[in-house]
Specification:
This protein has helices at 7-28, 80-108, 115-136, and strands at residues 33-37, 40-44, 48-56, 61-70. By secondary structure, it is α+β, with helices and mostly antiparallel strands. This is LHPL6 protein.
């Protein structure tokens, strides 16, 4: 197995993969905000939610659905800001994952990553991290 990466590049590839995986897990998990509603514990993130209220028309009351799931549609995400956050954070996670997987392939394939490709990948990785961090922090 020939590699086009130096020792520092191999460390970068594995750390990139770990950070991209952590970022993607954080994006998909619904534990960004925790609280309570109707005396039940609730949590939600930009992409998913747990224990959410639903109007039961047959009984004419609001009941809590005690399960986790995605929003029914993009328009079901509570606000425009939340939708923007979902798109930007998802884009950031995608960019981080793209660079990490390319870097891991560079560990196995010779002459895949040159100095220029490494610099471009670093720039893309910076952009992906900036998208993920700024939106996750409320910009």
């Amino acid at each position: 197995m020939a590699s086009s990466l130096t020792c520092a590049g191999i460390v970068w590839a594995f750390l990139s993969f770990l950070c991209a995986a952590a970022s993607c897990v954080g994006f998909f998990m619904p534990y960004w905000l925790l609280g309570s509603q109707l005396e039940k514990s609730v949590s939600f993130g930009t992409f998913r939610r747990c224990s959410y209220p639903v109007r039961d028309e047959s009984r004419q009351m609001t009941v809590m659905v005690e399960q986790c799931g995605r929003y029914a549609s993009f328009q079901a995400i509570p606000s425009t800001e939340w939708r923007i956050c979902t798109v930007v954070t998802g884009l950031g996670c995608g960019l981080l994952l793209l660079v990490a997987l390319t870097a891991l392939m560079g560990c196995c394939v010779s002459e895949l990553i040159s100095r220029t490709v490494g610099r471009v990948a670093g720039g893309i990785q910076f952009l992906g991290g900036k998208c993920s961090c700024d939106e996750g922090m409320g910009m």
